[in-house]
Amino acid sequence: MATTSGLNNSASARSTNFPGSGYEPVYGRIPIMQLRPQIEDSLFSSKAYVGEVVPFSCVSFREGHDKIGVDLVLTAPDGAAQRIRLDRGRAGLDEWLTTAQLDREGEWRWHMESFGDDFATWRHNAEIKVPAGIDVEVMLEEGARVLDRAQPSPALTAAAAAARDTASGPLERLRALLDDEVIAQLTAAPVRSLVTKSDERIIRVERQRAGFGAWYEFFPRSEGAVPKADGSWQSGTFQSAKERLEGVAAMGFDVVYLPPIHPIGSTNRKGPNNSLVAGANDPGSPWAIGAETGGHKDVHPELGTEADFVSFRERAESLGMEIALDLALQATPDHPWVKEHPEWFTTLNDGSIAYAENPPKKYQDIYPINFDNDPTGIYLEVLDIVRHWVSLGVKIFRVDNPHTKPLQFWEWLIHDVNAEHPEVLFLAEAFTRPAVMQSLAKAGFQQSYSYFTWRNTREELEEFLYETSHDTSDFMRPNLFVNTPDILTEYLQRGGRPAYEARAVIAAMGGSNWGMYSGFELIENVARPGSEENIDNEKYEFKNRNWAAEEAAGRSLAPLITKLNHIRRAHPALWQLRNFEIQDANNPQVLSFSKHLAAQYTDHGIADTILTVVNLDAFNTHEATLTVDSEKFDIPVGSGFQVEDLLTGSIWDWSTHNYVRLAPGQAHVLHVRHH
After folding, report:
1. Which of 617, 596, 593, 616 is nearest to 606 (CA)?
2. Which of 117, 332, 549, 553 has the greatest number of C-beta atoms within 10 Å?
3. Is 137 known to be catalytic?
4. Using an 8 Å Cβ cutoff, are 305 and 349 in contact?
5. Is 365 in the active site?
């Protein structure tokens, strides 16, 4: 019997004794199919995060013209259940739709119940027949009997009696049965028959940071680093890097992501700009993990001690931020694993160990892990690494290149870690094929890097943002990083400040999670020739930035970024992933979209709507007429409404058609005022 199609309906209206061969039909008495949220292969639970408004839907119908209704039965982790009526969707498609806000962590269970709505069926027939004088007494008595079967109330008892009072005229008796109070009660508690239940499904709800947050990446060794007269550098430390935390917190970030903080190997160490020869003073790439001083459980001695790291983490948390550590499963030739566990690597036929490659890139300073020679050993070692850092207070891991490791391994690791520590989150840095990226999300990764950095035209951005907020949102949450140490796109290289401003607005307003690598706010847009990487890349050397001086000189985007993150925190519509909607502009260089949260889901009972308009052209001013579908945020089309630009404070009266003129890279972030 198939159980993955959504057709296998366990039902009170479903017989257990079918005649003939005894074959048991897949369909229930009232079919229920195409349930959502669910992952198409039904191998994993769908996902949500605390506070997320989740769309639930199905297709359900019955034979003939009799009316049906559909309920969502939703059970919280503590066993508290609620029943939510679904609304009809698009005409003629038998869709049923509703939403629910999931307000606590844990495993939620849900199923659909379809039923014959006997009052609605009777009403449809009676409103045609009784005024036409057809089967009048039969229809009125049938209506009274439906009310007799309903949950008792004085209003229903009186209406049934009035329907049976032959001293009154037929239309008066019909009006008694269709009294507003009668309809309200039977809508809230319908008279149900042929009740059919779908199979039960699970949606796993994780803490809010899994789905909403602003990330900032920086290298702690660069913060407080001092160049010496001989060309060497004194490394920054966790102690000196604490000073940068205040600036990051002031910009409104929630997560500070650190590249690997472990000892760096010296064998085949890379020099500046990924050169194959390193000088005596070159610090090497933090992703080249392992030296005589330790491996993945150790702190680079130049950064400080384990206690210094804990103090750094505690300072971040006192400022309202969490620390995310890089989990990079690879090793240098100097890593203790190489001597202690050579079976964890791939040995070539010449006796050498294979180094990492991502053609055309080569990483001669790194050995990739072989997960098949000793799976038990390496699996348990990685689990022990994660447990070690969790014991030091780390709750978030950014995982380097997970698509180059077995999918089965990640499923096992994340399951075991979350069984002990459900608060721990994993971000997949997997710039890879869609099937692989999506499978990593299904296997357990709470967030994923995405193709956002390479989606630059309006068509590309609309397709990407809609797909990630609707098509894959049951299992995958993108984190819209605008740049990384490895990614400086041509758009940013060529577009300068306008391009940086546009990308920051799109990421912060369009995604529930977004992030940036330090230097973005300083518009560091010079690339190493022929590459998408910054020249003088911080992966291979120290960088000394004067954040305060750049901001004082007006050369920093920190004020814009601060404002964007403040807007995000103040507007709960932006805490959501699945509410992105495209709004139309008649200029292909102008991107417009909205995010809306209905009043029932806000703390203050007033709907929250943000409408964002961005000029994607970094070189030219553009004009456009926006055709706003205000029904997407519960304002009738054609009605006027007021908007406030949260970036400038300007207030305008808008309606369906609205004119905008935007300088290169300029944006409006508009708060729609609901009364």
Report:
1. 596
2. 332
3. no
4. no
5. no
